């Protein structure tokens, strides 16, 4: 006996599902064909693609091909994210995640705003030549600015690679530019210059003189001094707690940052009896709040002190013109460090007093002074050995 299959093999028009996420295939009477849809991720967004065919198999194959093409980036549209857009978002995320402090946030944004020749360009349009021409146009800027711009662009391209906006970080192939500005090292005041300045600050009516003296005798940064509050001074333990600094944010707005320039900058400075008397004069009858607030009870900025400091040096002819080097407000900090080295203070102790993150910073900054001090001590050692008839020849 022969059995015959009488069931039709003609494709049914009802919906036939693909694997999960692949959409569906169905018969379209108006077109007299099958159709199918699939959801694909294109440029980070979900988009629907439709395929048509005479049979279900043809449609399924087309949908499968769409999926393969999408994974290969065939449907990707050009990403026109600009340098500014990506950098701004990156900086905001770093700040929101507490990866950077307010001061770093402001500094990065200021650097970004100064990059107008390229920040409106799409990341994918930036070439090595574009970057090089940008740095050439800024080559007369300070080395500090060039370093910041270079580092920011490097970070932005890293982010672009991570987000697959570009395929490589072209900054890895570009050398950091060197400024055409002559680098004149900031120097400390000589002993004679320091004595003259101290006499003037004590005898004349110089605005912000107390802040200048405090920097000269503690090595504190001016922003740290202007942020000092009465509660930061402990007369029982004879300590100054350094934990804040006055900073300038976007649009020149001044504020107190609840952290110092570096993590190591959060430190405790010990003081002697003379400094205790001086600090009591600075505080006066204040019970709390800022020690060095302005006459209208506002923050005193580093620029304000620097202006008075420069005028004082010029008006009272403090500087010895024959001594090479740049003298600015930071020279007060250098002066303190130099006198400490000359007195025989070990580099590690000085590092902690100045709030340097690494002892190499201390050694590199004051290498000339340390070398001179070493030579002087070597001469003392030589003299000692000779006096005891110890000699190589």
Automatic annotation (TrEMBL):
- What are the GO BP annotations of this UniProt entry? DNA integration; DNA recombination
At the top level, the lineage of the source is Bacteria
What Gene3D superfamilies does the record tag this protein with? 1.10.150.130, Intergrase catalytic core
Keywords from the named record: DNA recombination, DNA-binding
Quote the CDD domains the UniProt record gives. INT_ICEBs1_C_like
Q: Where is the Tyr recombinase domain?
A: 184-383
GO molecular function list: DNA binding
Q: What PANTHER family does the entry give?
A: PHAGE INTEGRASE-RELATED, PROPHAGE INTEGRASE INTD-RELATED
Family listed? Belongs to the 'phage' integrase family.
Q: What is this protein's name?
A: Integrase
Origin organism is Ruminococcus bromii
């Amino acid at each position: 006996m022969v059995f015959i299959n009488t069931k039709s093999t003609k494709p049914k028009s009802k919906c036939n599902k693909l694997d999960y996420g692949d959409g569906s295939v169905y018969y379209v009477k108006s077109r007299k064909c099958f159709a199918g849809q699939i959801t694909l991720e294109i440029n980070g967004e979900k988009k629907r693609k439709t395929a048509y065919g005479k049979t279900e198999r043809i449609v399924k194959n087309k949908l499968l091909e769409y999926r393969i093409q999408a994974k290969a980036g065939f449907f990707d549209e050009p990403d026109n994210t600009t340098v500014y857009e990506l950098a701004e978002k990156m900086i905001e995320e770093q700040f929101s995640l507490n990866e950077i402090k307010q001061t770093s946030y402001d500094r990065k944004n200021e650097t970004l705003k100064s990059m107008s020749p390229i920040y409106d360009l799409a990341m994918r349009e930036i070439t090595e030549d574009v970057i090089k021409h940008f740095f050439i146009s800024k080559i007369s800027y300070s080395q500090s600015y060039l370093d910041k711009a270079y580092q920011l662009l490097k970070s932005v391209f890293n982010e672009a690679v991570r987000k697959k906006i570009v395929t490589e970080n072209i900054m890895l192939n570009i050398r950091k530019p060197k400024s055409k500005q002559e680098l004149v090292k900031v120097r400390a005041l000589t002993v004679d210059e320091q004595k003259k300045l101290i006499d003037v600050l004590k005898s004349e009516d110089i605005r912000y003189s107390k802040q200048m003296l405090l920097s000269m005798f503690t090595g504190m940064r001016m922003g740290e001094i202007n942020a000092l509050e009465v509660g930061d001074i402990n007369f029982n333990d004879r300590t100054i707690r350094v934990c804040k600094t006055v900073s300038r944010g976007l649009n020149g707005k001044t504020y107190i940052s609840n952290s110092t320039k570096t993590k190591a900058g959060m430190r405790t400075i010990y003081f002697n009896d003379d400094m205790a008397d001086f600090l009591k004069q600075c505080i006066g009858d204040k019970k709390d709040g800022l020690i060095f607030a302005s006459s209208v009870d506002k923050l005193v900025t580093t620029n304000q002190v620097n202006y008075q400091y420069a005028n004082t040096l010029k008006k009272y002819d403090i500087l010895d013109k024959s001594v090479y080097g740049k003298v600015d407000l930071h020279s007060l900090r250098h002066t303190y460090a130099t006198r400490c080295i000359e007195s025989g203070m070990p580099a590690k102790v000085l590092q902690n007093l100045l709030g340097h993150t690494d002892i190499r910073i201390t050694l590199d900054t004051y290498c000339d002074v340390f070398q001179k001090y070493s030579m002087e001590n070597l001469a003392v050692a030589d003299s000692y050995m000779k006096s005891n008839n110890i000699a190589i020849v």
